[in-house]
């Protein structure tokens, strides 16, 4: 059986599981009966698509939504997975082709509308095809009391008994009565399914972000305030893990580094030390963590911005598995944003996937620059909206904000008037009216924007640009190193149709102070 993680990365192009997905995937792949409740948009389809690839035979997916089935089949085929659909929207040729592939054992996933189950021919052909598992999307459709009731869903229970295969059922509807009805109707005569209903919140984990400002010192201070506690520091490069581990060691902490370039034996030694030893700090790349299941990790720090909001959630989620208090700190700066954008743009992924990766990075940047509760922002992204917190830096100390419409317009104007051709440094020089050689050579001292931004200093302008990047108002152009381009979402601001509020902490004060709790 191919591992879940390589498939997640190589086939689906995701770098981490979303909350809840991993446990569900493992249970489904292991052949258990499962009922999983996940919010809309939480990523249910992956929870049966990935196990389908891990298991032999074909997985039958029953869904009432024809457009969605066709979408998913197309996406799967594009990812190189043999998938087909039998729906009323098919042409005769399509139906014949799907049947043929099915009988020849070439399909991994077969999507089907529930109406099809009413035909005895369908059931016979499913039997011959070697269906090894049934996934039921929108499982609440089996509930006669709900408003989405589909009588054809009642045939699934019978089908399960006929084929004698595991069933995994998915829905976003969480009320207890619907759940009980799903169990009764889909799993008659079977062992009750394992239910996954855990919310995504990890209330014992304190969340905090800080802008990089002497980042090594920020990490050292964070570790110092937690001396003797077991923690992980994530870094974006291998060299940095070695460097930071040495620095922590020199301060009398017990620290080790870990990355994918190390000998397997050395890596295993660190993993074993980590499991055994109290108070060890592991400074690592994201290579560390897959097998790590230590319950009493008390803190996780990111010395660099993670890749996406999913990676962030997964990495901080390694802390406090025992339910005890755990703290996190994530550092970020304009360099991180540039690096992550460049990694996406220079990767080999097709354009749609790249756009999705940018969106997931934007979600993380939105969280980094959030103006209210981090937990609400984070869980809201995963579809969970009823959130209480009091356990994040912004609940501890609300962010001060200010109306940044004027400086943002100035910055946008400087970008446009210089042909979207320059990076932050040169743009700030123009706004501040500094006559550098480059400014003079390009005659940028003649621009109407030259020197209009003297109300702010250099660091403050950098903070404004960084937040503009975080809000995706501007993006570095991958073709021209570091040059900023305006995005569509900035247009209404420039045209005077929208105003914008930014966080004041890093802008109003010349230097930002990190929200580190001692
Ligand atoms: P649901 O069926 O729960 O409403 P989907 O399965 O359609 O949600 O997934 C919602 C979105 O989340 C999709 O765009 C999907 O590509 C994305 N997604 C799912 N799992 C992951 C993951 N592990 N990392 C990043 N994106 C994911
Ligand atoms: Zn909060």
TrEMBL record:
Domain of life of the organism encoding this protein = Bacteria
Where does the Helicase ATP-binding domain start and stop, copy by copy? 25-192
Q: Tell me the GO BP annotations in alphabetical order.
A: DNA recombination; DNA repair; DNA replication; SOS response
Reaction catalyzed? Couples ATP hydrolysis with the unwinding of duplex DNA by translocating in the 3'-5' direction
Q: Which UniProt keywords apply?
A: ATP-binding, DNA damage, DNA recombination, DNA repair, DNA-binding, Helicase, Hydrolase, Isomerase, Metal-binding, Nucleotide-binding, Zinc
Q: Which residues form the Helicase C-terminal domain?
A: 215-365
Cofactor(s) essential for the protein? Zn(2+); Mg(2+)
Q: What is this protein called?
A: DNA helicase RecQ
């Amino acid at each position: 059986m191919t591992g879940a993680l390589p498939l997640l990365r190589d086939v689906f192009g995701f770098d981490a599981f979303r909350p809840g997905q991993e446990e569900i995937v493992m249970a489904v792949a292991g052949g258990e009966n499962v009922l999983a409740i996940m919010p809309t948009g939480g990523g249910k389809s992956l929870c049966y698509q990935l196990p389908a690839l891990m298991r032999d035979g074909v997985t039958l997916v029953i869904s009432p939504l024809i457009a969605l089935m066709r979408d998913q089949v197309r996406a799967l085929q594009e990812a190189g997975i043999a998938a087909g659909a039998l729906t009323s929207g098919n042409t005769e040729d399509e139906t014949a082709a799907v049947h043929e592939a099915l009988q020849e054992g070439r399909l991994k996933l077969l999507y089907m509308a529930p109406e099809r189950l009413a035909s005895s021919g369908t059931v016979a052909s499913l039997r011959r095809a070697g269906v090894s598992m049934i996934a039921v999307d929108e499982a609440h459709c089996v509930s006669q009391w709900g408003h989405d009731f589909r009588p054809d869903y009642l045939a699934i229970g019978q089908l399960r008994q006929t084929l004698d295969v595991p069933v995994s059922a998915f829905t976003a509807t969480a009320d207890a009565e619907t759940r009980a009805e799903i169990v009764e109707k889909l799993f008659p005569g079977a062992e009750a399914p394992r239910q996954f209903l855990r919310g995504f919140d990890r209330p014992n984990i304190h969340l905090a972000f800080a802008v990089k400002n002497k980042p090594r010192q920020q990490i050292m201070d964070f570790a110092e305030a937690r001396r003797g506690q077991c923690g992980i520091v994530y870094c974006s490069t291998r060299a940095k893990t070695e460097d930071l581990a040495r620095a922590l060691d020199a301060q009398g902490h017990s620290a080790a580094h870990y990355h994918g370039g190390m000998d397997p034996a050395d890596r295993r030694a660190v993993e074993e030390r980590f499991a055994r030893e109290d108070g060890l700090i592991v400074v690592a790349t994201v290579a560390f963590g897959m097998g790590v299941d230590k319950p009493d990790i008390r803190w996780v720090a990111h010395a660099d911005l993670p890749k996406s909001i999913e990676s962030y959630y997964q990495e901080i989620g390694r802390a406090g598995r025992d339910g005890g208090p755990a703290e996190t700190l994530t550092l970020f700066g304009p360099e991180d944003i540039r690096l992550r954008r460049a990694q996406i743009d220079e990767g080999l992924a097709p354009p749609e996937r790249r756009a999705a990766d940018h969106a997931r990075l934007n979600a993380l940047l939105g969280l980094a620059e959030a103006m209210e509760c981090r937990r609400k922002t984070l869980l809201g992204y995963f579809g969970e909206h009823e959130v209480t917190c009091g356990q994040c830096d912004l609940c501890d100390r609300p962010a001060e904000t200010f109306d940044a419409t004027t400086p943002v317009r100035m910055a946008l104007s400087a970008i446009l008037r210089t042909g979207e051709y320059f990076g932050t440094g040169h743009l700030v020089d123009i706004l501040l009216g500094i006559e550098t050689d480059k400014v003079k050579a390009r005659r940028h001292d003649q621009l109407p924007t030259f020197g209009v931004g003297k109300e702010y200093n250099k660091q403050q302008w950098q903070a404004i640009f960084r937040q503009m990047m975080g809000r995706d108002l501007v993006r570095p152009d991958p073709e021209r190193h570091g040059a900023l381009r305006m995005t569509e979402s900035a247009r209404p601001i420039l045209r005077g149709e929208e105003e914008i509020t930014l966080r004041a902490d890093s802008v109003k004060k010349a230097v930002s102070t990190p929200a580190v709790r001692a």
